[in-house]
Design a protein that fits this description.
alpha/beta; 5-stranded parallel β-sheet; 9% strand; globular
Length: 425
């Protein structure tokens, strides 16, 4: 697939990240960065020499990068298996949800296929007190945060405004309005600063680190004004927030090359905040850079923009046909970097994932799938008045009048049906 001249255009067909890259006549040195600063912008054009940080190659080979490995000292065999299990379960939930949409059980579904490592790796970096503001595709993040699969799908069935208690899960309801969640995240992060300043939060408790915020969005959202405003305010306030951009290469049918002439991470430079580019199909590197960014946020270092370079292997939503705008060759090239396969190769090579462990993961997936199907079919449709619930925190006269008016309107149909006239006829 031919791509436009742009630093991020390298992402359309997976490059050899560790090799020096020649792009548009500008030589990139492939230098390794520490995750806190950008590579220099060359004088002959706005290009980045920052290759995505990586630890796991597509063939499962584990590299060593000191600035990343220092954040992974606690990652033992048990945690590696947990990361793998969470990724495989997320993929199974995604597959089941797609099937349920085709069967009419939910109205729509935005698949995450191909983005499991970016989501699971970053979610495992979160502390219990951290708060998440996500878009509509972060299903794996929600699952890691403890949200039940059925609750994840209830919104897409159209029966609730939020499928879970955001305060219990420390995860806000998913946001469909593109980029709006970044403003919510910064507002919450500034609130944390205010609480800390007034003694509402104990920032000296090492056992329970001061909370931070992560907001997830896609490459398409970076063209929204809300995201620009959020980063501007976050930089001004040095807010404890991490902007996690999953660059999956497509804003519906528009490639990232049409949105930015430089890698998206370069935008951090303009706001004066830290930025790091990571191979989003590498769960270990993603975990490391997110931990680094959260540490920076907690310790007064301000915001970080993480660009996780990945690929949406499925459609934008189940209403989309990606074959109309992308090539089979492009998809095949990214399938060779599949995040689940990559981690599985590494675990098998290390003896961490033997036959028994693999069977246990498969049985877990089957149990989750069965629970999901049973749960979503038991969800009852709400009564008509539910649409008026939870609009305001306290009683509201106008809303009460609207509820009463709509109730009388619906009752009119009952009267017409009873007399044999009206619409029922």
């Amino acid at each position: 697939m031919e791509s436009a001249a742009h630093g991020g255009a390298r992402d359309h067909v997976p490059p050899a990240w560790h090799d020096a890259a020649q792009h548009d006549g500008v030589q990139h040195d492939g230098a390794q960065h520490d995750g806190t600063q950008h590579g220099d912008v060359r004088r002959d054009g706005p290009r980045s020499d920052q290759e995505p940080a990586r630890l796991l190659a597509p063939d499962g080979t584990r590299g060593a990068v000191a600035d990343l490995d220092r954040w992974l000292a606690d990652v033992d065999d048990a945690m590696l298996r947990q990361l793998y299990t969470d990724m495989v379960v997320a993929r199974r939930v995604d597959t089941e949800a797609t099937a349920l949409q085709r069967q009419g059980q939910i109205g729509l579904w935005p698949p995450l296929l191909g983005q499991e490592a970016a989501q699971v790796g970053s979610a495992h970096a979160l502390g219990s007190g951290d708060f998440v503001f996500s878009s509509y595709r972060e299903h794996a993040v929600a699952l890691v945060r403890g949200i039940a699969p059925t609750d994840l799908l209830r919104v897409w069935r159209g029966v609730v405004g939020s499928g879970w208690d955001p305060y219990t899960a420390r995860t806000a309801p998913m946001q469909v309005i593109i980029g709006a969640q970044t403003l919510h995240a910064v507002g919450y992060a500034v609130g944390l600063l205010m609480e800390a300043a007034t003694g509402g939060v104990d920032t000296d408790d090492e056992a329970e680190p001061s909370p931070a915020v992560v907001t997830y969005f896609g490459d398409g959202a970076t063209s929204q004004g809300d995201v620009h405003e959020a980063m501007t305010f976050a930089a001004t306030w040095s807010a404890p927030v991490v902007f996690f951009c999953q660059n999956n290469q497509w804003a519906i049918s528009e490639p990232v090359a049409l949105q930015s002439k430089v890698p998206l991470v370069e935008r951090a430079r303009g706001y004066g905040i830290a930025g790091v580019r990571v191979d989003g199909n590498d769960v270990l590197a993603t975990l490391a850079v997110t931990r680094d960014a959260l540490h920076r946020a907690r310790t007064g270092g301000g915001p970080t923009l993480i660009e996780a370079v990945t690929y949406r292997m499925g459609p934008h939503t189940t209403a989309d046909d990606p074959t109309r705008y992308r090539s089979g060759e492009d998809l095949a090239a990214w399938r060779a970097q599949d995040p689940v396969d990559r981690l599985e190769r590494y675990l098998r090579d290390q003896g961490v994932l033997d036959a028994a462990a693999a069977l246990a993961v498969e049985e877990t997936c089957d149990a989750v799938a069965a629970e999901l199907r049973a749960g979503i079919t038991r969800v009852e449709d709400p009564g008509w008045s539910a649409v008026f619930d939870a609009v305001y925190a306290e009683p509201h006269a106008t809303l009460s009048a609207e509820r009463a008016t709509y109730g009388r309107y619906l009752a009119g149909f009952d009267d017409a049906d009873a007399t044999g006239g009206g619409w029922a006829r």
